[in-house]
Amino acid sequence: MTTPRLTVIGTGYLGATHAICMAVLGFEVLGVDVDEQKIARLAAGEVPFFEPGLPELLTKALESGRLRFTTSFAEAAEFGDVHFICVGTPQQKGSHAADMTYVDASVTALARHLTRKALVVGKSTVPVGTAARLTALVKEIAPAADEVELAWNPEFLREGFAVEDTMKPDRLVFGVASGWAEERLRAAFEPVLAQGVPVKVTDLATAELVKVAANSFLATKISYINAMAEVCEATGADVSDLAEALAFDTRIGGRFLRPGLGFGGGCLPKDIRAFMARAEELGVGQAVGFLREIDGINQRRRARTVDLVTELAGGDVAGKKVAALGAAFKPDSDDIRDAPALDVAGTLHRMGAEVTVFDPAAMENAKRVHPELAYGESALDAARDADVVVLLTEWTEFRAIDPAAMAAVVAGKSIVDGRHALDPAAWRAAGWEYRAL
Ligand code: UGA
After folding, report:
1. Residue 168 assigned to a binding site
2. 322 class by beta-carbon count within 10 Å (0-12 exposed, 13-18 middle, 19+ buried)
3. 42-158-371 Cα angle (round to 5)
4. What are the tens digits of pLDDT across the range 185-234?
5. Atom of ligand 1 nearest to the CA of 13
6. ipTM more than 0.95?
7. Distance from the CA of 419 to the center of ligand 1, in angstroms?
8. Which of 280, 335, 387, 405 is deepest in the core (most CB within 10 A)?
9. CATH, range 302-436
10. Do domains 6-202 and 212-295 have the same CATH topology?
11. CATH architecture for the domain at 212-295
């Protein structure tokens, strides 16, 4: 089989990464988006978000001549043999369900121009049943309806490790309805498969479900250890030691058992909610009812962090200066979607505290969404004259803060470590009142 030409529709986080990596791996790739500004920036060699290693690869891909960008769906349909749908499925306003507007709009826009044999591959995280629905939609509107097929290839990349996760993922999942679709997908991932990456070939619905099942499991691990943290706090036990001891059991493993402020971002929180909403629709809401508890435990971490800061501020934060270290939902990212850090900072501000935030990458995004907060130039700058310091995102540079240097600038030597990122002994030795979640 010939090497397929690829289009990647939606050049946000997932799509841009996929397009760039596939071009670097040797494919002819066309990136497509309705956002002209985004397309112009990418075509000019600029990655519009923070992702280690990606800007260098974009330059390389553009120089190779294999990667181009367009806003034209007609051009995409003409160019591509395999079309990857990588648009977002955010949480609907006023509901827990996924908003399918962008998926439906992009598949419709593409299908109208599909006049020849093509495979349309969904990568977005969607409610199970979407691929079947889109198959019917494509059949209805594509001029070459009989020659167009749908497949599903869920994406598991993590922000901050997007390049690594795309070039050498733990596994690939191909949801297909025919042997032809499987062959096309194998051809579209040939260099990745050649590295020995395992592939699970299955039906469309299972492929869609693998993604939400995986994210639900990860969320469950995090909330599990955070639930243990609540119990530890009530008994004086140490949840970090507990997590380490659990991790020796290879059946449990240590990953995603880091206790702290909990999960946020554009995926885990909305995915478990959309999964619950979809399961309700399917009449199996009870089967995933435990996810409501997972969400609840996660939200309680944010409230508990606010409580700890309040305690250290003497029972009331009104008029107190609080330094918030971190804004991104996790380190090595500038993403502030459902960021626990900004949730906590915003709540403290509403309670009357003067909150100064510092984050190594997410400052611009944070300022846009939270103009009411103050922003420092550095961690030390944010901590100047603070009554309480609270670490909310575990950036490496925060782990490396010298407690003595910070002690010299603050008004009160009180710190809440919301991510178990600091060495309690070192901070206490420098005279700090150190509290962790
Ligand atoms: C997550 C999944 O890990 C990816 O596999 C998936 O592809 C992606 O969602 C997606 O659906 O697109 P991501 O949102 O980039 O990736 O971030 P994670 O590394 O999973 O972290 C999620 C949140 O959990 C962060 O807020 C992090 O601070 C928190 N976390 C993670 C913990 O609180 N404790 C842990 O032990 C691990």
Report:
1. no
2. buried
3. 65
4. 999 999 999 999 999 999 999 999 999 999 999 999 999 999 999 999 99
5. 12
6. yes
7. 14
8. 335
9. 3.40.50.720
10. no
11. Orthogonal Bundle (1.10)
